[in-house]
Amino acid sequence: MVVMTGSPDSFLLIQQADVLLPDGHIQQTDVQVQGGKITAIGTADATHADRIIDGQGLTLLPGVIDPQVHFREPGLEHKEDLGTATRACARGGVTSFLEMPNTKPTTASQAQLTAKLALAAQKALVNYGFFIGATGHNLDELQQAHPSPGIKIFMGSMQGELLVDEETILDAIFAQGDRLIAVHAEDQARIRERRQRFAGQTDPAIHSQIQDNQAALLATQLALRLSRKYQRRLHILHLSTAEEAELLRQDKPPWVTAEVTPQHLLLNTDAYAQIGTLAQMNPPLRSHHDNEVLWQALLDGVIDFIATDHAPHTLAEKAKGYPDSPSGMPGVETSLALMLTQAHQGRCSLQQVVQWMSTAVAQAYSIADKGRIQTGYDADLVLVDLNTKTPVLREALQTKCGWSPYEGWVLTGWPVVTLVGGQVVYDHGQFDLSVRGQALQFQS
Is the pTM of this model over 0.85? Predict the structure, then answer.
């Protein structure tokens, strides 16, 4: 790992890359960057450039905005921290992230949010935002904490103060204020009942039966009902089932959005036999049929965008065996290459990948000046190589947990250069550890 140096005010020129423009066309041209912004697009004079990046043979895309991650700091740094996680982001072409509140302490107050923002300002190589977590006892904090993309509610799959599974409390949260609410939609009562029914079973595949499709559907139905009751902006995190996708296809209010993870598109219950507890996550992996229905919902716009739900655990923790093994898997480092590989294989287009992983996320969370390669927009950019195939190798991973469910998969579309705020943070395997991202701002 080599530390590079650069300045956000320097004049940087990306020459002759295949640039994905906002109208969807790809044009081989130059992009000028200065002061953290895209200042011009078109053939440029390189005479006064402080740095020139040769983009020939590479494709320039807006940086990925990952709207659901768990980076474990503070309190769980043995799994991941903001330094290792954002190196993984940079290598994966992720230039901004939105992080969830289930750290230790939880992010459930302005003081805790401020502390987490301060940590990120010191350590994060990419841009950052943090959800405020609902506890059922912090209604005032939920409305006032700033800056935050929204309120996170764990309706299930959670223990402790962040579990909010009583409808009366959920109703009160939906009724007050207008900030976006993002839900982990699993029905905790059904999960409890099924845990008792399947108690004593140690095959990790049973996880997908305990937290079954019905558990997800029941919670999503409740969230939609409350959202409609109060006309409240709702986002459904990591949609995982065919039933939920079909529900939204039939009845999705215009103020509701939904996301899907690459693992719920590309992995299914067959993975338990291959990688065991490394396939264990919440909500669980589903069937091949669910994969297909989710794909179609994404292609049709029923599902709006993609998030990774990056949730690392150590290999030692995963080795404890089910049900003692924790749920979650890493994802920021591989998500863009996974989806670009799908585009390469004809499952979707390059333009759709960018819409799902950048443009639509910026729109949904009202993040200004991101998600497009356009003059005046922030220079959060990634150059990818669409012509070279490289496997996912454990020894190359930057995430502290040191493993990937996609180990051995051969992917095309790996990032070659990543820019955050106009600064090169990643360049052909080298990192500039002096780069710092900025706190994201969310327009009302």
Answer: yes
